[in-house]
Amino acid sequence: MNTPVAADARVVALVPAAGRGVRLGAPIPKALVPVCGAPLLVHAVRGLLAAGCVDQVVVAAPPDMVDVVVDALSEFGPTVRVVPGGEERSDSVRLALDEAVAVHPDTRVVLVHDAARCFTPPEVIRGVVDAVRAGAPAVIPVLPVADTVKQVDSEGRVVATPDRSRLRVVQTPQGFDVDLLRRAHDQQDAPVTDDAGLVERLGEPVATVAGHPHALKITTPFDLVVAEALFSGAEL
Ligand SMILES: Nc1ccn([C@@H]2O[C@H](COP(=O)(O)OP(=O)(O)OP(=O)(O)O)[C@@H](O)[C@H]2O)c(=O)n1
Ligand SMILES: C[C@](O)(CO)[C@H](O)COP(=O)(O)O
Questions:
Q1: Residue 194, ligand 2, Cβ within 6 A
Q2: Which residues form the signal peptide (predicted)?
Q3: Fewer beta carbons within 10 angstroms: which end of the chain, N or C?
Q4: Are the C-beta atoms of residues 47 and 122 closer than 8 Å to each other?
Q5: CA-nearest residue, atom 16 of ligand 1
Q6: Which of 193, 206, 219, 223 to mutate to test the pocket of ligand 2 (most atoms within 8 A of CB)?
Q7: Distance of CA 74 to the CA centre of its chain
Q8: pTM for this one?
Q9: Which alpha helices (DSSP H) does 65-135 contain, by range?
Q10: 106 DSSP 8-state letter
Protein backbone atom coordinates (compact mmCIF):
# COMPACT_ATOMS: atom_id res chain seq x y z
CA MET A 1 0.00 0.00 0.00
CA ASN A 2 1.03 3.60 -0.65
CA THR A 3 0.57 6.33 1.92
CA PRO A 4 -3.05 7.51 1.73
CA VAL A 5 -3.59 10.29 -0.80
CA ALA A 6 -4.63 13.70 0.59
CA ALA A 7 -8.39 14.18 0.48
CA ASP A 8 -8.06 17.26 -1.74
CA ALA A 9 -5.56 15.70 -4.21
CA ARG A 10 -6.59 16.13 -7.84
CA VAL A 11 -8.41 13.26 -9.53
CA VAL A 12 -8.34 13.18 -13.33
CA ALA A 13 -10.36 10.76 -15.45
CA LEU A 14 -8.97 9.74 -18.84
CA VAL A 15 -11.65 8.59 -21.28
CA PRO A 16 -10.39 6.60 -24.27
CA ALA A 17 -13.06 7.29 -26.91
CA ALA A 18 -11.05 7.05 -30.11
CA GLY A 19 -12.15 3.59 -31.19
CA ARG A 20 -14.07 3.00 -34.41
CA GLY A 21 -16.52 0.52 -32.92
CA VAL A 22 -16.01 -2.16 -35.55
CA ARG A 23 -18.05 -4.71 -33.58
CA LEU A 24 -20.93 -2.25 -33.22
CA GLY A 25 -20.91 -1.60 -36.96
CA ALA A 26 -22.34 1.95 -36.81
CA PRO A 27 -21.44 4.43 -39.58
CA ILE A 28 -19.88 6.81 -37.01
CA PRO A 29 -17.32 6.19 -34.23
CA LYS A 30 -18.92 4.31 -31.32
CA ALA A 31 -18.42 7.08 -28.76
CA LEU A 32 -20.66 9.37 -30.83
CA VAL A 33 -23.44 6.84 -31.35
CA PRO A 34 -26.64 8.00 -29.61
CA VAL A 35 -28.20 5.92 -26.84
CA CYS A 36 -30.97 7.11 -24.54
CA GLY A 37 -30.96 10.56 -26.12
CA ALA A 38 -27.24 11.42 -26.12
CA PRO A 39 -23.95 10.06 -27.47
CA LEU A 40 -22.29 7.33 -25.38
CA LEU A 41 -19.41 9.67 -24.64
CA VAL A 42 -21.68 12.39 -23.23
CA HIS A 43 -23.29 9.90 -20.85
CA ALA A 44 -19.86 8.63 -19.82
CA VAL A 45 -18.51 12.11 -19.03
CA ARG A 46 -21.73 13.12 -17.29
CA GLY A 47 -21.51 10.00 -15.12
CA LEU A 48 -17.90 10.68 -14.13
CA LEU A 49 -18.60 14.27 -13.13
CA ALA A 50 -21.85 13.36 -11.36
CA ALA A 51 -19.96 10.93 -9.12
CA GLY A 52 -18.62 14.00 -7.32
CA CYS A 53 -15.02 12.82 -6.99
CA VAL A 54 -13.51 13.69 -10.41
CA ASP A 55 -11.93 17.14 -10.92
CA GLN A 56 -10.97 16.97 -14.59
CA VAL A 57 -11.71 14.77 -17.60
CA VAL A 58 -9.43 14.24 -20.60
CA VAL A 59 -11.05 12.55 -23.58
CA ALA A 60 -9.10 10.85 -26.39
CA ALA A 61 -11.15 11.37 -29.55
CA PRO A 62 -10.88 9.81 -33.00
CA PRO A 63 -8.12 11.99 -34.54
CA ASP A 64 -10.26 13.00 -37.53
CA MET A 65 -13.20 13.96 -35.32
CA VAL A 66 -11.70 16.08 -32.56
CA ASP A 67 -13.84 19.10 -33.53
CA VAL A 68 -17.03 17.05 -33.47
CA VAL A 69 -16.15 15.64 -30.04
CA VAL A 70 -15.28 19.11 -28.66
CA ASP A 71 -18.67 20.29 -29.86
CA ALA A 72 -20.50 17.31 -28.35
CA LEU A 73 -18.86 18.00 -24.97
CA SER A 74 -19.24 21.79 -24.96
CA GLU A 75 -21.82 21.65 -22.12
CA PHE A 76 -19.04 20.67 -19.68
CA GLY A 77 -16.79 23.71 -20.33
CA PRO A 78 -13.08 23.68 -19.42
CA THR A 79 -13.46 20.75 -17.00
CA VAL A 80 -13.29 18.50 -20.04
CA ARG A 81 -10.33 18.57 -22.44
CA VAL A 82 -10.11 16.68 -25.72
CA VAL A 83 -6.97 15.27 -27.36
CA PRO A 84 -6.55 13.19 -30.52
CA GLY A 85 -6.41 9.49 -29.68
CA GLY A 86 -4.04 6.84 -31.02
CA GLU A 87 -3.96 3.63 -33.02
CA GLU A 88 -4.71 1.31 -30.07
CA ARG A 89 -6.64 1.87 -26.85
CA SER A 90 -3.43 2.00 -24.82
CA ASP A 91 -2.04 4.69 -27.18
CA SER A 92 -5.15 6.76 -26.57
CA VAL A 93 -4.76 6.37 -22.80
CA ARG A 94 -1.09 7.39 -22.96
CA LEU A 95 -1.88 10.50 -25.03
CA ALA A 96 -4.64 11.53 -22.60
CA LEU A 97 -2.30 10.92 -19.66
CA ASP A 98 0.36 13.14 -21.26
CA GLU A 99 -2.20 15.94 -21.54
CA ALA A 100 -3.51 15.50 -18.00
CA VAL A 101 -0.06 15.66 -16.45
CA ALA A 102 1.04 18.59 -18.64
CA VAL A 103 -2.02 20.66 -17.75
CA HIS A 104 -2.25 19.62 -14.08
CA PRO A 105 1.17 18.47 -12.79
CA ASP A 106 -0.38 18.15 -9.30
CA THR A 107 -2.61 15.26 -10.41
CA ARG A 108 -2.28 12.32 -7.97
CA VAL A 109 -5.10 9.93 -8.88
CA VAL A 110 -5.92 8.89 -12.44
CA LEU A 111 -8.97 6.97 -13.57
CA VAL A 112 -9.09 5.30 -16.98
CA HIS A 113 -12.69 4.84 -18.10
CA ASP A 114 -14.04 3.45 -21.38
CA ALA A 115 -16.49 5.78 -23.13
CA ALA A 116 -18.25 2.52 -23.98
CA ARG A 117 -19.09 1.87 -20.27
CA CYS A 118 -21.25 4.94 -20.29
CA PHE A 119 -23.81 3.90 -17.65
CA THR A 120 -21.36 2.98 -14.91
CA PRO A 121 -23.06 3.72 -11.56
CA PRO A 122 -21.51 6.52 -9.44
CA GLU A 123 -20.87 4.14 -6.55
CA VAL A 124 -18.46 2.14 -8.71
CA ILE A 125 -16.56 5.30 -9.66
CA ARG A 126 -16.42 6.42 -6.03
CA GLY A 127 -15.40 2.96 -4.86
CA VAL A 128 -12.37 2.99 -7.15
CA VAL A 129 -11.34 6.53 -6.20
CA ASP A 130 -11.75 5.81 -2.47
CA ALA A 131 -9.55 2.71 -2.74
CA VAL A 132 -6.75 4.62 -4.53
CA ARG A 133 -7.05 7.47 -2.03
CA ALA A 134 -6.73 4.92 0.79
CA GLY A 135 -3.33 3.89 -0.62
CA ALA A 136 -3.91 1.11 -3.17
CA PRO A 137 -1.74 2.10 -6.18
CA ALA A 138 -3.92 0.26 -8.74
CA VAL A 139 -7.60 -0.63 -8.40
CA ILE A 140 -10.06 -2.31 -10.76
CA PRO A 141 -13.82 -2.96 -10.50
CA VAL A 142 -14.71 -6.60 -11.07
CA LEU A 143 -17.64 -9.01 -11.20
CA PRO A 144 -17.71 -12.74 -10.53
CA VAL A 145 -18.03 -15.03 -13.54
CA ALA A 146 -21.47 -16.63 -13.93
CA ASP A 147 -20.62 -19.15 -16.66
CA THR A 148 -18.05 -21.91 -16.78
CA VAL A 149 -15.03 -20.65 -18.77
CA LYS A 150 -12.87 -22.88 -20.99
CA GLN A 151 -9.42 -22.21 -22.38
CA VAL A 152 -9.07 -23.42 -25.97
CA ASP A 153 -6.17 -23.93 -28.37
CA SER A 154 -5.83 -22.31 -31.80
CA GLU A 155 -8.14 -24.98 -33.26
CA GLY A 156 -10.86 -24.27 -30.70
CA ARG A 157 -10.24 -27.50 -28.75
CA VAL A 158 -10.64 -27.23 -24.99
CA VAL A 159 -7.33 -27.41 -23.15
CA ALA A 160 -8.36 -26.30 -19.64
CA THR A 161 -11.22 -25.37 -17.33
CA PRO A 162 -9.94 -22.67 -14.97
CA ASP A 163 -11.36 -22.56 -11.46
CA ARG A 164 -14.30 -20.16 -11.89
CA SER A 165 -14.22 -19.03 -8.27
CA ARG A 166 -10.86 -17.35 -8.98
CA LEU A 167 -11.93 -15.62 -12.21
CA ARG A 168 -13.31 -12.09 -12.46
CA VAL A 169 -14.75 -10.00 -15.28
CA VAL A 170 -12.98 -6.64 -15.37
CA GLN A 171 -14.67 -3.28 -15.85
CA THR A 172 -13.68 0.38 -15.76
CA PRO A 173 -12.95 2.91 -14.37
CA GLN A 174 -9.58 1.54 -13.35
CA GLY A 175 -7.82 3.78 -10.84
CA PHE A 176 -4.10 4.41 -10.39
CA ASP A 177 -1.50 6.39 -8.58
CA VAL A 178 -0.37 8.72 -11.37
CA ASP A 179 3.33 7.82 -11.15
CA LEU A 180 2.59 4.10 -11.36
CA LEU A 181 0.37 4.52 -14.43
CA ARG A 182 3.06 6.65 -16.07
CA ARG A 183 5.71 4.01 -15.40
CA ALA A 184 3.42 1.23 -16.62
CA HIS A 185 2.76 2.99 -19.93
CA ASP A 186 6.40 4.04 -20.40
CA GLN A 187 7.44 0.39 -20.11
CA GLN A 188 4.75 -1.13 -22.34
CA ASP A 189 6.45 -3.73 -24.53
CA ALA A 190 3.48 -5.70 -25.94
CA PRO A 191 -0.23 -5.19 -26.64
CA VAL A 192 -2.51 -5.19 -23.63
CA THR A 193 -6.28 -4.97 -23.26
CA ASP A 194 -6.45 -2.99 -20.03
CA ASP A 195 -4.24 -0.63 -18.05
CA ALA A 196 -4.08 -2.87 -14.99
CA GLY A 197 -2.42 -5.43 -17.26
CA LEU A 198 0.52 -3.06 -17.69
CA VAL A 199 0.80 -2.59 -13.94
CA GLU A 200 0.77 -6.38 -13.44
CA ARG A 201 3.74 -6.66 -15.82
CA LEU A 202 5.71 -4.37 -13.50
CA GLY A 203 5.04 -6.84 -10.69
CA GLU A 204 2.97 -4.28 -8.81
CA PRO A 205 -0.22 -5.32 -6.96
CA VAL A 206 -3.67 -4.61 -8.37
CA ALA A 207 -6.58 -4.47 -5.92
CA THR A 208 -10.22 -5.20 -6.77
CA VAL A 209 -13.47 -3.52 -5.73
CA ALA A 210 -17.07 -4.38 -6.58
CA GLY A 211 -18.14 -3.66 -10.13
CA HIS A 212 -21.76 -3.49 -11.30
CA PRO A 213 -23.72 -5.11 -14.17
CA HIS A 214 -24.79 -1.61 -15.29
CA ALA A 215 -21.15 -0.85 -16.09
CA LEU A 216 -21.49 -3.08 -19.16
CA LYS A 217 -19.30 -2.21 -22.15
CA ILE A 218 -21.41 -1.37 -25.20
CA THR A 219 -19.61 -3.42 -27.81
CA THR A 220 -22.20 -5.02 -30.13
CA PRO A 221 -25.65 -3.98 -31.46
CA PHE A 222 -27.15 -6.33 -28.82
CA ASP A 223 -25.48 -4.29 -26.05
CA LEU A 224 -27.01 -1.12 -27.46
CA VAL A 225 -30.48 -2.69 -27.29
CA VAL A 226 -29.82 -3.82 -23.71
CA ALA A 227 -28.66 -0.32 -22.72
CA GLU A 228 -31.74 1.31 -24.29
CA ALA A 229 -34.01 -1.16 -22.48
CA LEU A 230 -32.28 -0.65 -19.13
CA PHE A 231 -31.73 3.08 -19.12
CA SER A 232 -34.19 4.81 -21.47
CA GLY A 233 -36.58 5.58 -18.57
CA ALA A 234 -33.81 6.54 -16.17
CA GLU A 235 -32.94 10.12 -15.23
CA LEU A 236 -29.68 10.62 -17.11
N1 LIG B 1 -7.54 3.28 -30.71
C2 LIG B 1 -8.47 3.23 -29.76
C3 LIG B 1 -9.31 2.08 -29.58
C4 LIG B 1 -10.28 2.10 -28.58
N5 LIG B 1 -10.42 3.20 -27.81
C6 LIG B 1 -11.48 3.25 -26.80
O7 LIG B 1 -11.34 2.22 -25.85
C8 LIG B 1 -12.63 1.88 -25.31
C9 LIG B 1 -12.82 0.36 -25.26
O10 LIG B 1 -12.64 -0.13 -26.58
P11 LIG B 1 -13.78 -0.89 -27.39
O12 LIG B 1 -15.02 -0.98 -26.61
O13 LIG B 1 -13.17 -2.14 -27.93
O14 LIG B 1 -14.07 0.14 -28.58
P15 LIG B 1 -13.61 0.03 -30.07
O16 LIG B 1 -12.15 -0.21 -30.19
O17 LIG B 1 -14.15 1.25 -30.69
O18 LIG B 1 -14.45 -1.26 -30.56
P19 LIG B 1 -14.06 -2.33 -31.68
O20 LIG B 1 -12.93 -3.14 -31.09
O21 LIG B 1 -15.32 -3.09 -31.87
O22 LIG B 1 -13.63 -1.55 -32.91
C23 LIG B 1 -13.69 2.55 -26.18
O24 LIG B 1 -14.28 3.60 -25.44
C25 LIG B 1 -12.89 3.03 -27.37
O26 LIG B 1 -13.37 4.25 -27.94
C27 LIG B 1 -9.58 4.31 -27.98
O28 LIG B 1 -9.71 5.30 -27.27
N29 LIG B 1 -8.61 4.28 -28.95
C1 LIG C 1 -10.57 -2.16 -20.42
C2 LIG C 1 -11.66 -3.18 -20.60
O3 LIG C 1 -12.91 -2.53 -20.66
C4 LIG C 1 -11.68 -4.08 -19.37
O5 LIG C 1 -12.62 -5.09 -19.53
C6 LIG C 1 -11.48 -4.01 -21.84
O7 LIG C 1 -10.32 -4.81 -21.76
C8 LIG C 1 -11.46 -3.20 -23.13
O9 LIG C 1 -11.38 -4.08 -24.21
P10 LIG C 1 -11.71 -3.61 -25.69
O11 LIG C 1 -11.56 -4.79 -26.57
O12 LIG C 1 -10.76 -2.50 -25.96
O13 LIG C 1 -13.15 -3.19 -25.63
A1: yes
A2: none
A3: N
A4: yes
A5: 19
A6: 193
A7: 21
A8: 0.96
A9: 66-72, 89-103, 122-133
A10: T
